[in-house]
Amino acid sequence: MTFYADFTLPFIIGTVTLFAVIAFKYISWIKELPKQDLLLIAKGMFTHRTITAIWEVIRESLLHKRIFKVNPTLGYMHMSLAFGWFLLIAVGWIETVAYLGFKWVPLQGHVFFKYFVPLNGIEGHKPIFDFVMDALLLLVLSGVGLAWFKRMRSRALGMKRTTKHIPLDRIALTALWFIFPARLVAESITCSIYGGGSFLTGGIGTLLAKGIAIETLQVIYEPAWWFYSCALGLFFIAMPFSRYMHIFTEIPLIFLRHYKLRPEATEKSYDNFEVEACSRCGICIDPCQLQQQLGINDVQSVYFLRDRRYNMLQQKIANNCLMCGRCEQVCPVGINLNTLRLNSRISMRNIPHEKRYNYFRGIDRSQGSGKVGYFAGCMTLLTPNTLSAMQRIFDAAHEQVWWADKEGGVCCGRPLKLSGEGDSAQKMIDYNKALFQKHNISTLVTSCPICLKVFREEYQLEGIEILHHSEYILRLMNQGRLRIKYSSASTFTYHDPCELGRGNNIYDQPRAVIEAVGTLLEPAHNRKNALCCGSSVANTAIDDRQQLTIAKGVAEELDATGATTVVTACPLCKRAIARGSAKKVVDLSEIVAGNLR
Ligand code: SF4
Ligand code: SF4
Asked: How confident is the model at residue 78 (pLDDT cuts 50, 70, 90)?
């Protein structure tokens, strides 16, 4: 048997194109990786990491466990398409071997096996394969049905918005929608002429045989297989240039992550894997407050990644993001969205630093001395109540403190970095780092989560422990160095700052401090799902009025807890929420300083 018919040509051309483009892309991306990344791959390849990566591929690329967690219906839709299709290929291959033994069969022979070997009546007919293949086809068709339904009624599937497609996506999507219905039709017509099939293709085949003349069925038989082959071919040709490239790209990305590759502060070829692994599922759209509260619909991570992939990213899109991390939190592919956006900003905006910030020299205005250094941060310097509260706390704990920036200092560098000025930020980092080391401190405390993040991630302060004031205050309490008055009648609600919670994974410490003072009432969105205050320094695109709208939304939710006081642990959040809240808004340090025994 030759396993060739003219109708298989579109499928063959599509398959060759698909694998040629994918091989070209992956080889060139891997070749461009920096040497240390190539070393990481070589080191990890023959270790248990490869096994754990394979397991993750099964869990996430086939079963879509993370999407199931976020939205079970969407999870089922993705699983039925990916896992169902995979099983159709795998069982189809086993079926070929079961009938023909271990001999080479070209790819189209496996894919169009029902055409080449219309099974019924042949010697050794194995109806179990008919049943399993029909069941799998039904599984995939249920996923296609849900995908259709999602396009028309996204809300019914728990999504307020779905992604806007580009033309190539539409071509691939349309072809994908037709692949499995076309297969059903072609196989059912085959069954109507030759018999065979099970409850699905066999059942429809019997109905067709009863209702349509055999001559007519024979006329539409070949065109039906042509249509199926064309749908496959078209999908495969459009796939590597469309969102569906994610189907393949997610797999190498999982392996690379297990080998410890990560995106960095500057763009590198590894980013291509993250960018093209985005399935444009649109899950990141709904949590975005820019969308929810301001109706901005074209800047979310899905659009940022799409624009970056097709080299059409504009600064106004890259800059219009709070970097709150709410989308990263829910992204089922686990893409490092904030880092990718940040390095895009840097590559679009960075201005070399040679002539800038020379006034840093000799600026040391620090005060006092001690093993504990306190870096208030620019925003804390603008919230004097936090500063004086920290002073009272240090005094009560008899802590000898070196104040790094009491009379003003150099910014931690993160705001500049977030705006894309990486080199200037680095100059600030270098200055502050030298200052901390010169003063020989062993602990660095800050009241600003933005400073905390950059200290921990980029300062590399060997020998210096870095603490947010919530961690430091809790430690003093646990050591018995701070004694606090407790009153259950004092009610507080707590706003998790983005950079402290999602950014630094600090959720429990501020809560423990609050619960030592009074009763804590949680807002509707808290911890990993907490809302952003709207005044993030990361967004240089929205105006004051828009920031206020977001702040009011957050404040409303905090006020609705019925607590008398709103507490936060970030000077920026404090100022932002205070503009929108009817309640008293304070920093964590203030409720501690105000309730010292
Ligand atoms: S960034 Fe993540 S959540 Fe958003 S569309 Fe892409 S894969 Fe989905
Ligand atoms: S980081 Fe926040 S503001 Fe930016 S796109 Fe994601 S959810 Fe929206």
From this structure: very high
**Alpha-helical segments (H) within 504-563:** 508-517, 544-559
pLDDT at position 70 = 84
Q: Find the DSSP H helices in 337-445.
A: 337-349, 378-381, 384-396, 414-418, 422-438
471 with 449: CB under 8 angstroms? no
Read off the pLDDT of residues 475-488 as tens digits, 9 standing for 90 and up: 999 999 999 999 99
pLDDT of residue 197: 92
How far apart are the CA of 334 and the centre of ligand 1, in A? 8
Decide: 302 in ligand 1 pocket, CB within 6 A.
Answer: yes
Distance 303 CA to ligand 1 centre (A): 9
Q: Rounded to the nearest whole angstrom, what is the distance from the C-alpha of residue 286 to the centroid of ligand 2? A: 10
Does 120 score more than 70 pLDDT? no
Residue nearest to atom 2 of ligand 1 (CA): 331
Closest to 406 in 3D by CA, of 356, 459, 367, 443: 367
Probe target for ligand 1 pocket from 273, 281, 328, with the most ligand atoms within 8 Å of CB: 281
How far is 317 from 314, CA to CA, in rounded Å?
A: 5
Q: Does the Cβ of 563 fall within 6 Å of ligand 1?
A: no
Burial (CB < 10 A; 0-12, 13-18, 19+), residue 480, is exposed
For a pocket test of ligand 1, which of 60, 159, 278 has the largest count of ligand atoms closer than 8 A to its C-beta? 278
Tell whether pTM > 0.85.
yes
Going through 262-378 in order, the beta strands assigned E by DSSP cover 372-375
> Which residues contact ligand 2 via a Cβ below 6 A?
287-288, 290, 300-301, 321-327
pLDDT score of 121:
60
State the pLDDT at residue 286. Answer: 92
Question: Tens digit of pLDDT for each residue in 215-250?
Answer: 999 999 999 999 999 999 999 999 999 999 999 999
Are 236 and 1 in contact by the 8 Å Cβ rule? The answer is no
Asked if residue 64 lies in contact with residue 254, where contact means CB atoms within 8 angstroms, the answer is: no
Q: Is any atom of ligand 1 closer than 6 Å to the C-beta of 275? A: no
Nearest ligand 1 atom to the CA of 282 is: 5
d(CA 490, CA 512): 15
Instruction: List phi, psi (to 5°) of 305.
Output: -65, -40
User: Is residue 181 a contact partner of residue 141, using CB atoms and an 8 Å limit?
Assistant: yes
| Residue bearing the CA closest to ligand 2, atom 1 | 323
What's the confidence (pLDDT) of residue 132? 97
